[in-house]
Amino acid sequence: MTPANGAPAPAAEAAPQEVESEAVAFRRQVDDLVSKTDVLERRVKEVVDFYDGKKHGSGGRKGGGGGRHGAYSRGMPDLMRQFGVLLKEITSHKDAWPFLEPVDVVNLHIPDYHKIITQPMDFSTIQKKMERKDGTCYTNVREICSDVRLIFANAMKYNDDQNIIHLMAKSLLEKFEEKWLHFLPKVESEEKRQKEEESKGVAATNTSREVAIAKLAKDTDDELNQINRKLEELRKMVVHRCRKMTTDEKRKLGAGLCHLSPDDLNKALEIVAQDNPSFQTKAEEVDLDMDAQSETTLWRLKFFVREALERQANVASGKMDENAKRKREICNALAKTASKRIKKQP
Predict the structure, then answer these.
(1) How many angstroms separate the CA atoms of 251 and 340, rounded?
(2) How far apart are the C-alpha atoms of 99 and 152, rounded to whole Å?
(3) Which PROSITE patterns does UniProt cross-reference here (predicted)?
(4) Most buried among 183, 200, 208, 334, by the most CB within 10 A?
(5) Domain limits of the chain?
């Protein structure tokens, strides 16, 4: 893992560095909110699955006790051993070395790591928890799976998407998800068997499951409200930091819109509609008054148009390179043919 920032900038670049730091801090806040929403999505699905099962008679007081966090019978420890083999395949990969042990923030000179990563995780910690015999051990395979995902999510969150550690984490996560997809039917089969045992009275009725789900639903709702408040704060901060766009910048922005591809132009109009619901994006002719748009919309359009035009330029450059290469090949072929003809002349 590499430090997020390089050497300190000279004093003359203090202002740009300050702006860049604000941008990095803002991006990390957004990444943190995205990570939290991913967790909340899984929680919501768990709540929905539970009440769907209860609605169809497979959940509730009896069926609900054997869910993801219930007390599993003899089948689950066997699944954990099998899952251990899957983990060994992942940890034996050549790109797994950064994730085997806890991040050494001292030797890596990354003092901000624990401020950004609030739930550190690594494979050695997972292994130790799997081997524990007390109440702090894993109770089911899904918990281990969640911690494996956390390892790679942390690495991708702390390192930007061009960093080698980020790319290694992304690649290994894809490999793990592929293996998990093949392993999942075994987990679901064991969970189903456990529920059937409980429904027959083999396992004790677990009423605490419904209580836990109700608490999970309430906590999730509270966290969603917190995220909404945080998003609103970030929106206000961005609006506050946006300077007013000059007339010349608006003119250039309008010219840039005219050079967008049809698909990108539709996306740009959707950006306008987000801040102005009455704006008609599907009309045959669209009259876009730059002076009537909010500063937030203008700056969002500016960044979008710049990226879209850069993409179009790269594509065009690639085609030109291909055309030039093809022309060179044709010229070389003609030259060789002409040379052969000259040699054949008496």
Answers:
(1) 59
(2) 8
(3) BROMODOMAIN_2, NET
(4) 183
(5) 76-204, 243-343
